[in-house]
Amino acid sequence: MHKYILRRLLLLIPVMLGVSFIVFTMMYFTPGDPARIMLGESAPEADVQRLRDDLGLNDPFFIQYGRYVKNAVVNQDMGRSYITKRPVFDEIAARFPNTLKLASMGVLIAVVIGVPIGIISATRQYSLFDNISMVVALIGVSMPNFWQGLLLIILFSINLAWLPSSGFDTWKHMILPAVTLGTSSAAIITRMTRSSMLEVVRQDYIRTARAKGQKESVVINQHALKNALIPVITVIGLQFGYLLGGAVLTESIFGISGVGRLMVDSIKSRDMLVVQGGVLFIAVTFSIVNLGVDILYSFVDPRIKSQYK
């Protein structure tokens, strides 16, 4: 197990290099001059060129990229924001707790809704409940988060005045954005749980357990569900990683100061060091979440733990 974890952590190195190179290349060729943005459109050209020299923006592409990688690896320095002048890591660290809290609440809602509905739909295949839940799940998968968020704001904040429309200070502020993220993920988890359970309940050992007179609840919860959890855990882990990096629109709509909103604002202001740092941070977080999911497999299915040995 320890060798497996170490090998996965070492694989993060080429992943981070690839992600950093792609993002750096995209930001390098994106129109816009950070020096001009920092000084303003009316700044003299000589001042702009002087600032570009100070920032190293006039150096060739590979020199700029090599300097960025060297500072990030050797000095653990991802640079300073062109706008706020603060270290990029501090900008991300100050906002990541809100993103983590929002993603965790969204996944919790998704699991609480998706797993039970998927189990019931599988055990009552083609029933009225199954048909309705699958239609609702299909709508949830197809509905864009930003549109759903706007509808929730109109209904619960403007018309009913039950919940605030922006901010992330109290539990009331967290309800609408968490529901917006959680319901779309719940639809995916519901469909995966149903599909996995349907495959398991047709196995011979399930028929044997029923033939021995086991209660249906015991057959489903102890025999079927445990063996159907592997793909479900995979989807939950992927959804959690997706929510950590994909809550951009939700944070912008509800005015949440998170990593996603920081990256949107940084893209608008051409603050490329913050964009690069944010993407790298999300990539590392996503990889760590996937590693945690792989380790969790061994606790759900002992056969997988034996493969690590």
List keywords for this structure.
MetI-like fold, mainly alpha, 309 residues
Explain this structure to me?
The protein is mainly α. Helix content is 80%, strand content 0%. It folds into two domains: 2-74, no CATH class; 94-308, MetI-like (MetI-like fold). Helix 10 packs antiparallel against helix 11. The longest helix has 36 residues, at 88-123.
The protein's oligomeric status is: single chain
CATH class identity of the largest domain: Mainly Alpha
Given helix and strand content, the structural type is: mainly alpha
Strand content: under 5%
Major sheet size, sense and barrel closure: none
The CATH superfamily of the largest domain turns out to be MetI-like
The gyration radius over C-alpha positions equals 24 Å
Can you tell me the CATH architecture of the largest domain? Orthogonal Bundle
Q: End-to-end distance, in Å?
A: 6 Å
